[in-house]
TrEMBL record:
Belongs to the diacylglycerol/lipid kinase family. This is Putative lipid kinase YtlR. It comes from Bhargavaea cecembensis DSE10. PANTHER family: SPHINGOSINE KINASE, SPHINGOSINE KINASE RELATED PROTEIN. The lineage of its organism: Bacteria, Bacillati, Bacillota, Bacilli, Bacillales. GO terms for biological process: phospholipid biosynthetic process.
């Protein structure tokens, strides 16, 4: 198996480059190296490998954050000869909380030598713009506003350099808490229609974690051919803060204002334009009254190493 590193030198406010310089000295197997030049480049590199099947299978290793591995999986989707691995070198690294990642070059060497499992896992697809994908989660509302604000923040590089990257997220959470306007939502799922009022956010998950370690969807399993919807609605600002705090432990699902559902497809129609995120990256605004469909694409990509999460079944809460 051929090993290819795709390095995002800009991840974690540029710290990833220094980490890569040290990491590459520890690599004791032959490899190819690519440096990404900007948004979309990691996807294009993965697409290039996906389009040309050689004799050898390819292990594509993302060296960066969630954005980098998200792009690489999108580019490699459907190519059976590509296995995707990751070394978490970003600020949030939610991918590494839900999926097995490599901690050292030695581990990658061992994987290449021993041919560990490469399970085929699910990916999410979103009918938005030219079509978007997610491996962790995608959603609309309050959390997407935070992703947008913290992603664009001029404070992010500075706080990242100081090792305080997570503060950017906290800062924008508090800001959104005071400025966000809730919305009405219609969800269609399995031929059933559900209406929600005063919605803060609706997130569709493929794995349990998002937002830098919040366990938003505790029962999500990227190997089950299903995705999970979490809708948070009809909460005061203060109670939302409480629910947000409990998300770190996955305890929020006990609140009656948190509704969880499981399925293969969810159509979400908001009554006003709302920001959308895919894997924590800003994806633009949905249009008022226009449905956005979130669908699971089962066994779309292969992960290097045994999958770490995996349970089945989900508690269906009562709806508001
Ligand atoms: N050379 C580059 N210069 C600037 N941005 C780049 C470059 N290469 C890639 N990018 C972009 O950097 C963005 C952030 O990358 P990534 O998500 O990997 O790191 P992060 O934001 O630090 O980590 P995390 O998403 O885990 O918090 C991505 O949108 C990616 O497309």
């Amino acid at each position: 198996m051929k090993a290819v590193f795709v390095v995002n030198p800009a991840a974690k406010g540029g710290k990833a480059l220094g980490r890569w310089t040290a990491f590459r000295k520890t690599v004791a197997f032959p490899y190819q190296e690519f440096m990404t030049k900007g948004p979309g480049h990691a996807k294009a590199i993965a697409r290039g490998f996906a389009a040309h099947q050689e004799k050898e299978n390819v292990l594509l290793i993302a060296f960066g954050g969630d954005g980098t591995v998200h792009e690489m999986i999108a580019g490699a989707a459907g190519a059976g000869h590509i296995v995707v691995g990751s070394v978490g070198a970003g600020s949030g690294n939610d991918f590494g909380r839900g999926f097995r990642t490599f901690g050292s070059a030695e581990e990658i060497g061992a994987y290449l030598g021993r041919r560990h499992a490469s399970p085929a896992l699910d990916m999410g697809e979103v009918s938005f713009g030219d079509g978007a994908t997610f491996v962790n989660s995608a959603g609309i509302g309050f959390d997407a506003v935070i992703s947008r604000g913290s992603g664009r923040s001029s404070l992010k590089p500075l706080l990242n350099r100081m090792g305080l990257g997570k503060f950017v997220y906290a800062l924008y959470t508090v800001r959104a808490l005071f400025t966000f306007r809730t919305f009405g939502l219609e969800v269609t799922h399995d031929g059933e229609r559900q209406e929600y009022r005063d919605v803060w956010f609706a997130t569709v998950s493929n794995q349990p974690y998002y937002g830098g370690g919040m366990k938003i969807s505790p029962k999500s399993d990227p190997a089950d051919g299903l995705i999970e919807l979490t809708v948070v609605s009809r909460l005061s600002r203060m109670k939302l803060l409480l629910v947000f705090g409990s998300v770190f432990f996955g305890a929020h699902t006990a609140f009656r204002e948190v509704d969880c559902r499981q399925g293969r497809s969810f159509s979400l129609k908001a009554d006003r334009a709302v920001p959308l995120h895919t894997d924590g990256e800003d994806a633009g605004n949905t249009e008022s009254g226009e449905p956005v469909v979130f669908t699971v694409r089962p066994e779309a990509w292969r992960l290097a190493g045994q999958q770490r999460t995996g349970r089945s079944g989900i508690k269906h809460e009562s709806t508001p």
